[in-house]
TrEMBL record:
The keyword rRNA-binding does not apply. InterPro entries: ITPase-like_fam, Non_canon_purine_NTPase, NTPase/PRRC1, YjjX_NTPase. Mg(2+) binds at D72. It comes from Pontibacter korlensis. Belongs to the YjjX NTPase family. This is Probable inosine/xanthosine triphosphatase. Substrate binds at D72, A73.
Length: 188
């Protein structure tokens, strides 16, 4: 690897998550070359996280397990999709956690509400990707455009939704001086 090459362990083998992580990193650090290392690590939460907190915990767990399994990387990225009930509706979103050797960044994607038919299946314990496939007659939609891709006719797909959250999670890495060594408050 040359000096601008950075090894990135992405805590998933899902091509949507891998591409979202790489694209977000490349947008924030266009001068660098990123070498991906997809890793199949468990989230430590339900296959379908049902709350904001459980979803964030899944992303945090993925990063910790990826770092333990691949300690020689420059970055570790965990992406966890989840849902949360809000006023009788089910919102879908993802949490992204990025870690390097010095710090951790976290961000949540935008959220959107699922159609009732999908919501009912998820509430019965079916993972969102499988529920989408059943309702919309697709196959393996979670490794393609996902629910958001189906519902927007690919105006926005799952990779783009996650990529934006990767960029947001990288804000501390582009501003290390503010996040690692915050200025002291002035006494008034």
């Amino acid at each position: 690897m040359n000096t601008s090459s950075r090894k990135v362990v992405i805590a998933s083998k899902n091509p949507v998550k891998i591409n979202a992580a790489l694209d977000g990193l490349q947008r924030m650090f266009p001068e660098a070359e990123f070498i991906p290392e997809p890793a199949n690590v468990a989230s430590g939460v339900a296959d379908q996280p049902m709350s904001d907190q459980e979803t964030l915990q899944g992303a945090l767990n993925r990063v910790a397990k990826a770092k333990a399994a691949y300690p020689d990387a420059d970055y570790w990225v965990g992406i966890e999709g989840g849902v949360e009930a809000t006023n009788g509706e089910l919102a879908a979103f993802a949490w992204v956690v990025v870690q390097d050797r010095e710090q951790l960044g976290k961000a949540r994607s935008g959220a959107f509400f699922l159609p009732k038919a999908v919501q009912q299946l998820v509430e019965q314990g079916i993972e969102l990707g499988e529920a989408d496939d059943q309702v919309f007659g697709h196959s393996n939609s979670k490794q393609k455009g996902g629910a958001i891709g189906i519902l927007t006719q690919n105006v926005l797909d799952r990779r783009e939704l996650y990529e934006q959250a990767v960029v947001l999670a990288l804000v501390p890495f582009r501003n290390k001086e503010l996040y690692l060594n915050p200025p002291l408050k002035q006494q008034v």
